[in-house]
Structure formats: C-alpha cells, structure tokens
Amino acid sequence: MTPERTSLAGIPASAEQPQSGLPALRDRDLLPAIEPDRRVNDWGRSERIEGIFDRTVVEFFYRYWFRAEVEGIENVPSSGGALLVSNHSGALPPDAATIARAIREEHPNPRPLNITVEHFFKGYPLFSMLIPKIGCVPAHPANVHRLLHDEEQLVLVFPEGRKGTEKLFHQRYRLRRFGRGGFVTAAMRARAKLVPVCVVGAEESAPIFAQVGVLKRLTGLAYFPLTPTFPWFGPLGMLGYLPAKFRIRFLEPIDTAELGADPDSDKALVQTISQEVRGRIQENVHEMVAERKSVWLG
C-alpha cells in the first residue's frame, strides 16, 4: 500500500482538495487569526493596563499629591524620535511616571513615553510583569535605537542610573556622573533630538536617610534604603511618598542631526555633549530649588 503523500504544511494531500462539498483547507487557515483590536504592542505595552494605572495611581499623585507644575512642554517634539534626559532620585523614583503624565496632560500633541529601566527589575515577581505593560523597556542600546530611529518615538533615560536612586538625603540635587555618554551616542546614531529634563520635588517625596548593606545582602534587593515609610510599612512603604511639590522643566532640545559627526569615531564630542547636558540640568535644578519658597507648597 502506497503511503499517503504529505505536503510541507504537514497536511495530507488529500485534505487539500475539496471533499463532500467542503471548501479546501489552505495553509494560511492554520495561522492564528489577526487581532484587529489588539491592545498590546511589540514591547508588551498594554493600552488597557496602562490606562487603568494612569487614571488611578498616576493621576492621583500627579494632580493631587505632587501637584505638578510644568514648564517648557513645547520643547518636547510633536513628531519624530526624541530622547528625554532627566535627573533621577528617590527610593522608588516617582519622576518617570510624573514626566510621562506631564506629556500626556500638558502637551498640545500628547505622545506615549517609553521609559528605560535597569535590568535588575526582572528579578522582582509581579513588578517585573507590570513594568513593560505601563511603557517601560529594558535599557539597552538596541532597544533605544529601534524606538528612536525605526519607530520615531519618545524615550526617557536617566544617565545617573542606579547611582541617582541611591543618593542620601544630604546629597539631594547633586547630579551624579552621566556615565560614558551612551545616551548621546544613541541619539546621534538615530539622528534624534536630545531634550534635557529637570525635576524638583522627587528628592523630598522619597528621601533616603541611609543604606543598609547587611539587609541588602539578606533580602537580595538591589539596595535596601531607610525612608520615612520603608521598611516600617513593609513593601507598600516604597510607595509611601511624601507630598512634596513637583516642578518639571523641559529645556531647549539639542538636534544631533545637525552635528554631522560619527559618535563611534568622535568620542570627544560625545563626552562634550554629555557634560553639556548634565551641566544644563544641574544649573536649572539649582535655579528651581533656589526659586521655591517651600518644599511642600512650591
């Protein structure tokens, strides 16, 4: 008996022909159906979950708790890729969500903001599942380039990295070193604009009074800070922000496309721009702190 021939799709040849008046089974019929109402993008961002999170948690803190005031929102481009560069602080930093909310709330042409996060967040159950759904992506050069160049989106980076979030209260508003200028290289390769961002208020909303190395090693956490609410109120203490008044200032952008240089061969230029961006943010942060009359009232 001759065995039945099987096509490359794994379907017996006889099944490819109409039988008993039934339509032929095509290879594409085996593919999953296209979801026209798909609400999760390629990065795992969920419109539904982000919308719920934004309308509840972020809205409350932005409008009622931090009472955020925004300056220079017109400096955020309405189209094209742009890399937002901000100072960073707080035990569980509230600055990223506040900046993203400011763009959605205050900008004449609101756009989603992609927030880069450290890879160690993958080690925290539940939290690691939530952060991609609300617009966070791993801080990797390839990810940043794709978002800026290929998808022409807004991306937020914190060049201070973990060093910024580990600052003690007496070190507040002193920017740490901006690494090796990787954010400048990313922007230049994508020919995107650099938008410096200054945040005042986060240092007082989540102040860190000490770092406990022993408990860090015992718990396996990236760091173990002592704050007004953590660890006294357990894990929820990390969200126990004080009602400091937030001020956010978007500075004039730098168009890297006009530089006409190769970031891989001109390292001196990369470092120069990195220091310029850091200097502009530091100068404006000091100015904003000097102008306010009260930590709580602004």
Blueprint of the fold:
Blueprint lengths: L46 H19 L3 E3 L10 E5 L8 H12 L6 E5 L9 H4 L5 E3 L2 H10 L3 E4 L4 H4 L16 H9 L2 E8 L1 H4 L4 E2 L1 H7 L5 E2 L20 E4 L3 E2 L11 H25 L7
Parallel strand pairs: 1-9, 2-5, 2-6, 3-4, 3-5
Antiparallel strand pairs: 6-9, 6-10, 7-8
Helix pairs in contact: 1-2, 4-6, 6-9
Major beta sheet summary: 8 strands, mixed
N-to-C CA distance:
88 Å
Residues in helix, %? 25-40%
The number of helices is 9
Residue share in β-strands: 5-15%
Structural class: alpha/beta
N-to-C order of helices and strands: HEEHEHEHEHHEHEHEEEH
Shape: globular
Average pLDDT score: 86
Low-confidence stretches: 4-18
What is the β-strand count?
10
Radius of gyration based on Cα positions: 24 Å
Description of the structure:
The strands form two sheets. Strands 1, 2, 3, 4, 5, 6, 9 and 10 form an eight-stranded mixed β-sheet that branches. This protein has a two-stranded antiparallel ribbon with strand order 7-8. It is α/β, with parallel strands linked by helices. The protein has helices spanning 47-65, 95-106, 127-130, 141-150, 162-165, 182-190, 202-205, 213-219, 267-291; strands spanning 69-71, 82-86, 113-117, 136-138, 154-157, 193-200, 210-211, 225-226, 247-250, 254-255. Helix 1 crosses helix 2 and helix 6 packs across helix 9. The chain contains nine helices and ten strands. The radius of gyration is 24 Å and the shape is globular. Mean pLDDT is 86; it is low at 4-18.
